[in-house]
Design a protein that fits this description.
Elements: E1 5-11, E2 23-30, H1 55-70, E3 76-80, E4 85-93, E5 103-106, E6 109-112, E7 116-122, E8 150-155, E9 174-179, E10 206-211, E11 231-236, E12 241-251, E13 254-259, E14 265-268, E15 273-276, E16 294-295, H2 299-307, E17 312-317, H3 319-322, E18 332-341
Antiparallel strand pairs: 1-4, 2-7, 3-4, 3-7, 5-6, 8-9, 10-11, 12-18, 13-17, 14-18, 15-16, 15-18
InterPro entries: Compl_asym_regulator, Lectin_gal-bd_dom, Lectin_gal-bd_sf, TSP1_rpt, TSP1_rpt_sf, TSP1_spondin_dom
Subcellular location: Secreted
GO molecular function, one term: carbohydrate binding
């Protein structure tokens, strides 16, 4: 049966004592030149170091010294023909040689014969402890906030040197600090409007204003001011201005013109009527039988239709216009009006 072994080993120079309890035997494996990696090197010169005639006597020391030179950097070592020593971080064998036939045993120690190597595994606690050392810190990361207090970090590695299995690792590999602690800009925002001020005029067209403040919040730390006006003005008119009041009496079948100054208009007032309520008005041809308690329905409204909003108007006082509230009684129009406008 053809047996193949794969090693990734480096050279180890033999010259030290060792503790045989720190490694254990794995087995005997056949080596073929065509599958041996280039990293395999002979590290013991047969002519200078190894006495082939005294092989069994030298083997324990040979194994121990090979272990001593490989224990800090490798997980496996092997002893080959004529005392060749190799160290490897890993190995794989397709099959072991039956009954260790290709290797030589001397008690606890074994070595390969021609085209064979005997492989040992180095125990985890065999290596000399190498504590880790830290590299320089790398660059700071970007701050988590642009203002108002963020955090940033930087890291270093445990590679100077890299710790081995029994050695101690590194601490404090990450450093964190605050950054961009300056206050963030606060843009201003308008507060609510105040109530409108009192109208600038007591009658007619005036103006009134209201205001607001940029304080909800007020701009701070370089923030933007409020956009827009802080005051607002509108027109107002508490009431129409009045220029004079008049009572006009118009006898039945007569007409009268009402007039106001320029830019003013007539406004018919309550109390206006068509009818008769006393005997002292339009009393020509007075008859004792005349009624003094008659009033046409809607008389004031009909007068308003004729005159309200006009600078001048004519009221013809007759039954055709207002109806006849009391037949046989001579009637009249009592017109109460005032002139109204937007300015005094």
């Amino acid at each position: 049966m053809k047996t193949v072994i794969f090693f990734s080993f480096f050279v180890a120079v033999i010259s030290a004592e060792c503790d045989v309890s720190k490694y254990k035997k794995i087995g005997c494996f056949q080596i073929e030149d065509e599958v041996r990696p280039d990293s395999f090197h002979e590290v013991i010169d047969l002519d200078e170091t190894f006495d082939i005639d005294n092989y069994e006597e030298q083997l324990p020391k040979l194994v121990c010294e090979c272990f001593s030179k490989t224990k800090d950097d490798y997980k496996y070592f092997s002893i080959g023909h004529n005392g060749h020593c190799h160290g490897g971080k890993s190995f794989h064998a397709s099959n072991r040689t039956n009954n260790e036939a290709g290797c030589i045993d001397v008690g606890h120690h074994s070595a390969g014969d021609e085209e064979h190597e005997y492989v040992y595994q180095i125990k985890a606690d065999a290596a000399t402890p190498i504590d880790g050392g830290v590299s320089d810190f790398g660059p700071w990361s970007q701050c988590s906030k642009s203002c108002g207090g963020g955090r940033r970090s930087r890291e270093r590695a445990c590679v100077d040197p890299i710790p081995n299995d029994p050695g101690k690792g590194c601490e404090n590999l990450t450093q964190v600090e605050e950054c961009n602690t300056q206050n963030c800009p606060i843009n201003g925002a308008w507060g609510g409007w105040s109530e409108f001020s009192q109208c600038s005029k007591s009658c007619g067209m005036g103006s009134q204003s209201r205001s607001r403040k940029c304080n909800s919040p007020k701009e701070q730390f370089g923030g933007k001011k409020c956009v827009g006006k802080h005051t607002e003005t509108q027109s107002c008119m508490p009431q129409m201005c009045v220029k004079g009041k008049s009572d006009v009496r118009i006898c039945e079948d007569k007409a009268e013109t009402l007039s106001c100054p320029a830019n003013w208009s007539v406004q018919i007032q309550s109390g206006s009527y068509y009818g008769r309520k006393n005997t002292s008005v339009c009393k020509r041809f007075y008859n004792i039988n005349w009624s003094t308690t008659c009033e046409a329905n809607g008389g004031k409204d009909k007068m308003a239709e004729l005159c309200d909003g006009k600078r001048s108007c004519s009221i013809d006082c007759n039954n055709d216009r207002f109806g006849d509230p009391c037949w046989g009684t001579k009637k009249y129009c009592l017109v109460k009006y005032k002139c109204v406008g937007y300015d005094l």
